[in-house]
Amino acid sequence: MKKTNHLFTAMLTLIVSTANASIVYTNIADTTLASLGTIHINFDDVGDAEFSIADQSFGGGPAEPGIIFNADAGFVMVGTPPPGTGWDVIAGISVNTPISDTSNFANNGVDGYINPFWGTTLFPSEEDAYIGATFKLGANVHYGWIRVNWNGSGILIVKDFAYENTPNTPINAGDAGTATIGISKLTDKVIVIFPNPSSDYINIKSGV
To answer: Alpha carbon of 168 to those of 79, 120, 155, 177, 188: distances in Å?
Structure first.
C-alpha cells in the first residue's frame, strides 16, 4: 500500500460583538434618495417606521427632501431649525450636539424639510450632518439622530441612525455607543492530531 504523509493545522476563530446596552445603532449601506423616492427610518426595527425621508420636489427644481413623521404613533418633532429659516425647515446639526428635551425641535404638523424653496438658510452641504429626532415608542419619549449628506442641489444620502433606548434620556449626535466587532482565537482548548506526519491513520484528541 502506498504511504502518504499528512500534515494537519487547526485554527478556530470566533466573531465577538459587544454593544452599549442603551444606544441602539443601525448602520446601513449609504442610500441615495431617489427622485420622488422614499427612505424609511425605523429606529427600533419594530412595527412601522418612525420617520420617512421623501423627495417632495415642491419647487419644481432640485429635489427638496422632506421628513414625514408617523403622527398616529406620536412622532411629532424632528430637526433643529435656526431662527428665521422658514416654516418646517430642518437644520443639520454637528457631531456631538446634545439632543434632548431642551433641543429646539420644529413641531409644524407632521413634516419638516431640508432646504425647501421657501427656506432662508441652507442645510449644510457637501459634508455629513445630523438630524435630531424625538419620538415615542409606546408611551415613552426617545431621542435619536439620523446622519445624512446633502449636496445642496438634489442629492441626499442617508448613512446611519441611532437612538437612546432609555426613555427621556439625551443622546449626542453621532453617538453609537461602544459597539465593536473583533476576532478572538479559542485558545483555551487544545486539539492534538497524531502521529503527524501520518502514513496510514491519525488520532484526534481534544483537551484542556
So the answer is: 17, 32, 33, 17, 43
Q: What is the pLDDT of residue 84?
A: 65
Count of residues in the chain? 208
Burial of 180 (0-12, 13-18, 19+ CB in 10 A): exposed
Greatest CA separation for the chain: 91
What is the identity of the amino acid at 4? T
Sheet holding 51-55: strands in order across? Answer: 38-41, 51-55, 65-69, 111-114, 89-90
Which amino acid does the sequence have at 81?
Answer: P
Q: How much is the CA Rg of the chain, to the nearest whole Å?
A: 26
C-alpha cell at 31: 442610500
* Local structure of residue 62 (DSSP, 8 states): S
* CB-based contact 146:154 (threshold 8 Å): no
Q: What pTM value is reported for the model?
A: 0.71
Q: What is the pLDDT of residue 207?
A: 52
